[in-house]
Amino acid sequence: MKFNKWTLGLAALGVVSLASAARADEAKMSQVQTALSNTTLSGYVDTSINWNPSGGGSIAPVAFQGISSSPKANGFNLNVIDLALDKPEDEGPWASGYHVELWVGPDADTLGTQSSGGSTSDFAIRQAYITLRTPVGNGIDWKVGVFDTIIGYESTSSPLNPNYTHSYGYSMEPTTHTGLLATYRFCDALSVTAGMADSKGPVVNDRTPQTTAPVAADTFLAYMGSVSLTAPDSWGWAKGATLSVGVVTGDGSNGAYGNDATTSWYVGGVLPTPNSNLKLGASFDYLTDYNHPGFPGYGTSAGGPGTGPGGNPWALAVYANFQATQKMSLNGRFEWAKSYLSTVAGFNNLSSQQNAIAFTGTIQYDLWANVLTRLEFRWDHASTGIYGGSLNGSKTPGEENAIMVALQAIYKF
Predict the structure, then answer these.
(1) I need a labelling partner for 165 at 20 to 30 A (CA). Which of 16, 72, 330, 392 fits?
(2) C-alpha–C-alpha distance, residues 196 and 194, integer Å
(3) Is residue 164 over pLDDT 80?
(4) CATH class of the structural domain 42-412
(5) CA 169 to each of CA 49, 50, 230, 380: distance values in angstroms, whole numbers, following the listed order
(6) Residue-by-residue DSSP string for 194-238
(7) Residue 388: which residues within 8 A CB-CB, separation 6 or more?
(8) How far apart are CA 183 and CA 194, in angstroms?
(9) Distance between CA 360 and CA 404 in Å, rounded?
(10) Non-local CB neighbours of 20 within 8 Å, separated by 6+ positions
């Protein structure tokens, strides 16, 4: 065993013995090894090839970019590298653990979790939280730090989704929060989650003071809650069906909303079918836009709650998943988003009823070990309808279509 010069000097003076020093070093190494023995490393490398024969299409910001606003059309892309460290909780009544997930690559820029006041770079904190359990009733599970939002059908992490691209509803939802979250499971069929955060996110340690009187900055937090139901085994072929209802309200710097107060409502679920290879899903997102009735004096120049340039947008999506073989699955999604273009996508020259529809079809085939491969076709359509105008200054009034073909490959480890 090697000793540093200070240990050798103290041993020469008789202050310590080399044997005791060796035992102390072994004890420290044992503590480190014990702490790391239950920690796991995982992650993935996400790449894609995008082809947009229609030329891109401004109506589909989430269609062609995934979660990213960086150019991905008609080329090869490194999307992101995900690295995660986990120490799960044990079965003890006062168990603890942690989850740290980091993103490196172009999509890390647009995730938008850089610390408040910081600049963007090809690095982001995807999640970073401590888990704690308190032995109250069936046990309350806590998360403290940066965690995913509690609403939504789709995840920010692409491997967890049925499709390569995200839905319109996803782009209306918050992504991550910095705060405190508590989950209580009453039984296998019912769990409730509630929490509060600095903001609706996603900026880490976000501080979004409201300068318009009479709202005080120290009262401006985000609040969230959800209820989840799971069908028991006694439901036969429908066992495992899920239904989730949730709301997140507050201020945030996410997406097109700037620092405006908004409320996001969500309901969604998954339903098995008598055919064990087929599952159906649905989600509904509703956004109370720009003005929040709980914050008097905020945004009154816009005319009151829900009277921003696009009104209150909503998005409906229906999903179908068919496991054709052990390695191949077929995934479809149909969407209808109302008032999306003028509110969320930011085309403020449009009237309040600009709708978009989209169809996404994805073939997933796991040919190589640890590799997820997808071939996806997506078609988006928008119309100015009876309200006139155009989708942007260079387009002809009427309709706009956007088409995308993409190949995605993800290596998971």
Answers:
(1) 392
(2) 7
(3) yes
(4) mainly beta
(5) 24, 22, 22, 14
(6) EEEESSSSSSTT------STT--GGG--EEEEEEEEE--GGGGGG
(7) 351, 397
(8) 7
(9) 9
(10) none
Angle at 54 between CA 48 and CA 56, to 5 degrees: 55
CA–CA separation, 390 and 58 (whole Å)? 12
Q: Tell me the torsion sign for CA atoms 133, 170, 173, 288.
A: negative
Other CB atoms within a 10 A radius of the CB of residue 200 amount to 32
Nearest to 371 by CA among 310, 413, 329: 413
Q: CA 366 to CA 322: how far, in whole Å? A: 14
| Residue 110, both tokens | 């647009």
In this predicted model, what pLDDT tens digit does every residue of 7-46 receive, in sequence order?
555 555 555 565 555 555 665 555 555 556 689 999 999 9
279 and 258 in contact (C-beta within 8 Å)? no
* Three-class DSSP labels, 304-367: CCCCCCCCCCEEEEEEEEEECCCCEEEEEEEEEEECHHHHCCCCCCCCCCCEEEEEEEEEEECC
- DSSP code per residue over 41-106: EEEEEEEEEEE-TT---TT-HHHHHTT--S--TTEEEEEEEEEEEEE---SSTT-EEEEEEEEESH
DSSP at 260? -
205 φ/ψ sector (left φ>0, alpha ψ -120 to 50, else beta): left
pLDDT digits (tens, 9 = 90+) for 61-86: 444 444 344 567 788 999 999 999 99
Query: Rounded to whole angstroms, how far apart are CA atoms 283 and 289?
Result: 19
Q: Residues of the chain with pLDDT > 70: what percent?
A: 67
CA-based radius of gyration for the chain: 25
- CA-based max dimension of the chain: 93
Residue position matching structure tokens 């010069």: 5
At 14, the amino acid letter reads G
Question: pLDDT tens for residues 168-210?
Answer: 899 889 999 999 999 999 999 999 999 999 988 888 888 765 5
282 touches 267 (CB < 8 A): no
What is the rounded distance in angstroms from the CA atom of residue 113 to the CA atom of residue 117?
11
